[in-house]
Amino acid sequence: MFKNLSPGAIGIRATLPEALKIAKEAGFGGIDVSINEVAKMAAETSMDHVKGLFAQHGLRPGGWGLPVDWRKDDATFEAGLAQLPGQAKTGAALGCYRVPTWVLPYSDERPFREQFDFLADRFRRMAVILKDHGCALGLEFIGPKTLRIGHKHEFIYTMAGMLELCDTVGTGNVGLLLDCWHWYTSHGTLGDLRKLKVEQVVYVHVNDAPANVPIDEQLDNVRCLPGETGVIDLVNFLKILSDLGYDGPVTPEPFSQKVREMPAPDAARATHAALDGVWQKAGLK
């Protein structure tokens, strides 16, 4: 595993060269990329030049967010799907093979089974393209009960439910974007984590939860830095992932207003320091 920075997750807006410098100086081992920015840079210079920037800073590429707008109408989806082979080729050329996205825990259009089949079909079509380039698709389940209230149809919000969807897609390159926040708010257990196979985990998010708030009252956009409150058992979460043999990015996603208000280098340093604290407690290298 390596400590990975997603600049946007902590409010940093920067070009890839700027973000690489910020991530390196803060102590991270990797960084997420915009696949379209990488493609543009490679077209203007070369992929070797882009890879050289990573090597210069001693950083690994973490992941790139799935760029296809699969939540929209057929025409929008098909237009995005047509671009995916080129984007996947770019990711593979960079050595960046992890492609995460998130799945809402409700639908106001389709009942559960219809939504399940609808998404399985769309994810399958995208996963086949990604697989052609050695890339894996990571699906994030969204745990908080507060997000499901007031919507017409409840959908997947647990790890077990999302694994069932991954299995139904059936391409062999679809697994979890495993976020400790959603594991916690869905009432997940350490025992659940221990049952995972390493190939079922594509990408990992970490954070913490506000203290003195019942699990079912936690709000998705109110989080804390890793280890800030100790509400989420992040030390054992990380230990189990390490024991599984997960070797991918571990990315803080704290949704912290105080972090977002910091200058970019300070935000990155504060985020790394928080992650490093639980990293050391978990005995990770």
UniProtKB/TrEMBL annotation:
Source organism of the structure: Handelsmanbacteria sp. (strain RIFCSPLOWO2_12_FULL_64_10)
All copies of domain Xylose isomerase-like TIM barrel, residue ranges: 21-272
Listed Pfam families: AP_endonuc_2
Top-level taxon in the UniProt lineage: Bacteria
TM annotation in the entry: none
Protein name stated in the entry: Xylose isomerase-like TIM barrel domain-containing protein
InterPro entries: IolE/XylAMocC-like, Xyl_isomerase-like_sf, Xyl_isomerase-like_TIM-brl
Matches recorded under PANTHER family: HYDROXYPYRUVATE ISOMERASE, XYLOSE ISOMERASE-LIKE TIM BARREL DOMAIN-CONTAINING PROTEIN
